[in-house]
Amino acid sequence: MSGIKHGDGPLHEVVVSLGTNDPPRCRRILEAIAAMRGLLLDCRVSDIYETPEIHGYGDPYMNAVLSGRTRMDQTELERFSKQYEVKAGRDALARKEGRVPIDIDIVIWDGTVPQGLCPVFFQDRVYRLESQVGSPIVQRDLSSSTHTIYSLT
User: Fold this and answer.
1) At residue 81, what are phi and psi to the nearest 5 degrees?
2) Burial class (CB in 10 A: 0-12, 13-18, 19+), 101
3) Is the pLDDT score of 42 beyond 90?
4) DSSP string, 20-54
């Protein structure tokens, strides 16, 4: 597959959330899905769905969630994601205008939620993907006192 980092390194389990409020929203999400599919093995994708802008003053978002595995490390995948966002037009002017051409967030990496993300932020997205594929995507360990541990099933 083009774009997948090959080698002997470990496969990392990842769940990624995509969102945009900038027209044409569906096309932007489909293009981001195609780009991420080039990086993820065993890639599963939710339906594309709409959510309101959480601050109440912007346009609604189109979203999708992906899960899969990659040989990239977290820093490499984050760098790819941010470069993709900039290439798609996510810059100071877009922020000033309240436009988000594309937002790519790693919401689970090897069973943990990256620092700064709240599990509530992505739970609905993960549940949506699980309902699409008809089986759990992640196993949740609620016994941890500091955070929930996730693993792809």
Assistant:
1) -60, -45
2) buried
3) yes
4) E-SSSHHHHHHHHHHHHHTT-EEEEE---EEE--T
Q: What average pLDDT does this structure show over 27-38?
A: 97
Cis peptide before 24 (omega within 30 of 0): yes
Other CB atoms within 10 A of residue 29 CB: 21
Q: How far apart are CA 16 and CA 109, in angstroms?
A: 9
pLDDT confidence of residue 117: 61
Q: What element of type H or E holds 7?
A: none
Helices (H) and strands (E) in the chain, counts: 4, 7
Average pLDDT over residues 23-40: 97
Nearest CA to 16 out of 59, 74, 93, 101 is that of: 74
Cα–Cα distance, 41 to 51 (Å, whole number): 27
Beta bridge mates, 64:
18
Please tell me whether the overall predicted TM-score, pTM, comes out greater than 0.90 for this model.
no
Question: How far apart (Å, rounded) are the C-alpha atoms in residues 106 and 133?
Answer: 20
